[in-house]
Design a protein that fits this description.
This protein has about 210 residues and is mainly α. The protein has 9 helices and no strands.
Length: about 210
């Protein structure tokens, strides 16, 4: 087998771990042009998922104060950022990965419950960053997904977007609660809504 053909079929081989019969059938036709393009995108999303999960694990360790300084950045400040050195960058990476989970679920590369479980894990890590980027994303994603579901372009129940937004909001308040209970260091939620963290808005007030 040519090396480029083997690389194109990596996503299908990964998929076979979850849905063997469907993946085996698709391997027979994986060398046409469409399959190659689709395989490239699936490989991209699988790679991003692996990277995002590792970043999420590092963020949890930073939040708990359990860091391996040889392979991970020590936490500087009060908001976990994984190995990206900036909380908003970590939040953006994880949110893009959640979009990738939706893509793989729509292409039946992941079952709905598998994509949902991974999305919940990533949303928990996003909540740790206390990033306002995620709040804007949640609002835009909710409107967009409901619109696409209403048009019949997505294989999702209309309650799915509401569930994940509610779950994310719950994670934000749960993070706040457990941070105080376990005496961990983190910028409080109120500090992200009001106070010094919002001083940049004064630039536009004059």
């Amino acid at each position: 087998m040519r090396i480029e053909h083997w690389l194109y079929t990596i996503p299908l081989r990964l998929r076979s771990l979850f849905r063997r019969s469907r993946a085996d059938a698709e391997l027979d036709t994986a060398d046409d042009a469409h399959s190659r393009v689709s395989g490239f995108f699936e490989l991209f999303w699988w790679t991003l998922i692996v990277v995002s999960l590792l970043s999420a694990v590092i963020a949890f360790q930073q939040w708990l104060g359990d860091i391996n300084h040889t392979f991970e950045f020590p936490l500087v400040g009060d908001r976990p950022y994984g190995n990206l050195a900036q909380p908003n960058h970590l939040a953006s990476l994880l949110l893009v990965c959640i979009c990738g989970l939706l893509y793989l679920q729509q292409r039946r590369a992941l079952a709905g419950w598998q994509a949902g479980l991974l999305a919940c894990l990533l949303l928990m890590a996003v909540a740790l960053t206390v990033s306002r980027v995620a709040w804007v994303f949640a609002l835009v994603a909710l409107v967009y997904l409901l619109w696409e579901i209403w048009r019949g372009n997505l294989r999702l129940s209309k309650w799915v977007p509401w569930f994940f937004v509610a779950f994310f909001v719950g994670c934000i308040f749960a993070t706040e609660y457990f941070t105080h209970r376990m005496d961990l260091s983190q910028i409080p939620l109120a500090g992200r809504v009001d106070g010094e963290q919002m001083n940049r808005l004064r630039i536009w007030s004059g």
